[in-house]
Design a protein that fits this description.
Layout lengths: L9 E2 L9 E3 L23 H4 L5 H8 L5 E3 L2 H7 L7 E3 L1 H7 L4 E6 L10 H13 L4 E6 L3 H13 L2 E7 H6 L1 H9 L3 E5 L5 H9 L7 H14 L3 E3 L6 H20 L6 E5 L4 H15 L6 E7 L4 H4 L1 E6 L8 E6 L21 H8 L4 E5 L1 H15 L5 H20 L4 E6 L7 H8 L10 H9 L10
Parallel strand pairs: 5-15, 6-7, 6-9, 7-8, 10-11, 10-15, 11-14
Antiparallel strand pairs: 1-4, 2-3, 4-5, 12-13
Helix pairs in contact: 3-5, 4-15, 5-6, 6-8, 9-10, 11-12, 15-16
The protein binds pyridoxal-5'-phosphate.
The site of pyridoxal-5'-phosphate has 20 residues, from α6, α12 and α16.
Amino acid sequence: MAQNEKIPYKIYLSEEEIPRQWYNVRADMKNKPAPLINPGTHEPMSAADLAPVFCDELVAQELDNDTAYIDIPQEIRDFYKMYRPSPLVRAYCLEEKLDTPAKIYYKFEGNNTSGSHKLNSAIAQAYYAKKQGLKGVTTETGAGQWGTALSMACAYLGLDCKVYMVKCSYEQKPFRREVMRTYGAQVTPSPSDTTQVGRKILAENPDTTGSLGCAISEAVEVAVGTEGYRYVLGSVLNQVLLHQSVIGLETKAALDKYGIVPDMIIGCAGGGSNLGGLVSPFMGEKLRGERDYRIIAVEPASCPSFTRGKFVYDFCDTGMVTPLAKMYTLGSGFIPSANHAGGLRYHGMSPILSQLYHDGLMEAVSVEQTAVFEAAEMFARVEGILPAPESSHAIRVAIDEALKCKQTGEEKTIVFGLTGTGYFDLVAYEKYNNGEMDDHIPTDEELAVGFAGIPRFEGNEI
Ligand SMILES: *Cc1c(COP(=O)(O)O)cnc(C)c1O
């Protein structure tokens, strides 16, 4: 491989260089993300309104649009030391394979048992719940990475963990379910008959394979109705993007060591947490007018919240039990086709990223899943890591951008987020290898069904 002697294959930071503070990009945003509002009154949710659902410290972080840097408690930093800092890898082998003048780097977050970046926020959320003296937490999980990460964090801190797992994943991914149970979590397929909202969804649609939106409704209902429990969410929320800023801060520190300035930063976007975390420090520079970068969100063509969604207030869940968030959304009733990137099958998008996208500060593209798996396979063969289908969306676009550089001869520097590994996604790889994978793209009529469920009120026209 044509390795440049100056830049190693992997840029590692030392343990000391694990960030001591998270960076809150909202502090530098001129147009702040819209607040969560009460679906009945349309008034912004106050800390007191949110307190029955989330633990207090996380509510404070959720509502804090002004503090740029928030200290990472020592206990959380100690946990981070078990699997961080994560490497920033120069994809020399991929560059050679593509025969591109582009320089490609990826930040690899798959070096822990949960197999994804989600542990960064799971430990923070579990920590604050424990500190508040709570007994346990409830959550939903789609593909299973978030549930796994949360079970690991809860096991470490001695908290109960109840996970509502989207039914199709529960059935398709028994191994993830068992990892969660190994870490002591109680896992229920959603929709289930253990909650009112689950029973209602099942009565209306008995054959449903579930969705993240349904599972959220169930987990929130159980949290609010059980003494000593709160609900935690693995993406979308402002607090989650805050915790995930460790990804971007480490990436920036590693690049700075070698004086590397990226031209573009690419990440897959489900609810937006890894992308938001990766790009936060770079977006901060952009917002403060210090530097410019292209920032690109990649989403599946089967669940195109950014590229085909509406920027309006909508429910975060199917059962309509959550507050309303202003975000790019396909409608909380939208159930995407059985795309294999389970972690990207969410109808909405982080309000922070939605605002930044709306303000033209970032771009978004959607890609079809066979093209994603083609990229995944090429990447696995040359770089060695078996990527998660979600992460492979970012790989696809990084490759496409590197191929454009080949056409133009430009030596662009591309950084992308490799959010996790795909060991539990081999059914998807099997489908791809057998040539049985299809690319379902929803028609405008199919999307209209989801849009029809968006709440209408003055100022929320679609
Ligand atoms: C959950 C997940 C994602 C998508 O979630 P975001 O909140 O958009 O980051 C991406 N990659 C992996 C591996 C995941 O587990």
